[in-house]
Amino acid sequence: MRSLWLEEALAGAEDAPRLEGEERADVCIVGGGFTGLWTAIRLKEHDPALDVVLVEADVCGGGASGRNGGFVLSWWAKFGTLKKVCGADEAVRLALASVEAVDGIGAFCREHGVDAHYRRDGWLWAATSRAQLGAWDETLETVEQYGHSPFARLDAGEMARRAGSDTHLGGVFEPTAATVQPARLARGLRRVAMAAGVRVFEHSPMTKLDRSRPPRVVTTQGSVRATKIVLALNAWAAALRELRRALVVIASDVVATAPVPDQLAAIGWSNGSCISDSRMLVNYYRTTLDGRVVFGKGGGKLAFGGRIGSSFDGATPRGDEVAASMRSLYPSLRDVPVTNAWMGPIDRTEVGLPFFSRLGGRDDVLFGVGYSGNGVGPSFLGGRMLASLALELDDEWSQAGLVREPVGSFPPEPVRYLGGVLVRRAVERKEAAEDAGRRAGRATLLLAGFAPAGLVPLKKPAAT
Ligand SMILES: Cc1cc2nc3c(=O)[nH]c(=O)nc-3n(C[C@H](O)[C@H](O)[C@H](O)COP(=O)(O)OP(=O)(O)OC[C@H]3O[C@@H](n4cnc5c(N)ncnc54)[C@H](O)[C@@H]3O)c2cc1C
Fold first, then answer.
1. How many Å lie between the centroid of ligand 1 and the Cα of residue 185?
2. Are 136 and 149 in contact (CB under 8 A)?
3. Cβ distance 101 to 306 under 8 Å?
4. Which of 27, 208, 283, 306 holds its CA 20 to 30 A away from the CA of 150?
5. Ligand 1 atom closest to Cα of 252?
6. Do 74 and 101 touch, CB atoms closer than 8 A?
7. Contact 180/118 with Cβ under 8 angstroms?
């Protein structure tokens, strides 16, 4: 079973051919999600004569790009970490660029006639328990120190009004965010890339990265030798030995309801705004153009050794849990049926930011990974960074502060998996206690504190 998004976007579409035989190219991109496709388009914009091949294991958009919540967010909520990783000036530049990316995606859709249901109605960063109130304070203060105020504070009444439920106790609003039907965007990017001359091969998984010179991508039925290879593999990159310790792969799980436009209109929540709360096992939700609620929850199953396999595809085993979270936040929608449920892998880095660099220090094999659940907007910038690296340009993108090796590393297996399971359970206990208006025990808080960065910075527990 595909995501609701991809099923809709693929209806009647023809797959690209499989790669068969030996090919040569200037650039071979591996992975046909947002990162790979934006990189391909950027390369062709720079030099239409460049021979660009893209190989995708499934269909373009079959990975996270066709399964996500469709939140198009900036990096302002990550400003504190961006500043630590890149320094203040570069953090401001990248945060501003990430806002331009949100607009850039809308402009791309308009220019190329991509009907991705782009709606720029903002993001509500909410508290859905008292313990979450003020989770945003430190970020807002830090951002304001640098003269920017991308967020507006909302009191409980205003937050509840905009979210359509008084389970929202307060929060902030970032007006520059958008939502999209993400698979429509991915398939639109594929169309534009192919029209620009990118040679796309679907159902052609890379089975081996031949680290020869020049390097070669080997697929089930063919191979591509290329001057440059760009690995745009998202969580699947955790299988590469060079990146194994940089990523934890964890599922995010999503349900969609039947269309209920009248009920959404009645609660005053039917525009394109997106909402997430301030927990580690984050709840994220939005409405669709045809009046459904799409509701996701982070922090699902972990992949042992970064191996994903088919257990991250198809229907989520957490569907009932995710639906229960939706109903507890929207009691008025408790009788609305859930019609679709799916899941996908998240490429979490320790600091919650992506990195774009040279695999094993080689100039001819590049990678971009680690969006950590915020990749729809930022992959627009990732494509610029990877294209500039592939073209060996000396510009603001090849020199960007996130063009570096991933910061931080996770322990080796089996410690990472077993530790991850323990930490995840502790986070679950901590957040259940907070939902019930209690404070979790010290041991639970201590263990939960080992969780890597989430979608948004979390409030630190007050000292006892
Ligand atoms: C359920 C879910 C909800 C999310 N919600 C949001 C959200 O609302 N907002 C947001 O900003 N981000 C969200 N994200 C994250 C976002 O989807 C990703 O950061 C973004 O799609 C990354 O794009 P990508 O191109 O790097 O990865 P992908 O789209 O995953 O592309 C990687 C591609 O590589 C292919 N591939 C894998 N192995 C091979 C191989 N061996 N050979 C060839 N191809 C291969 C895969 O099939 C896949 O198509 C969510 C993710 C998930 C899973």
1. 13
2. no
3. no
4. 283
5. 1
6. yes
7. yes
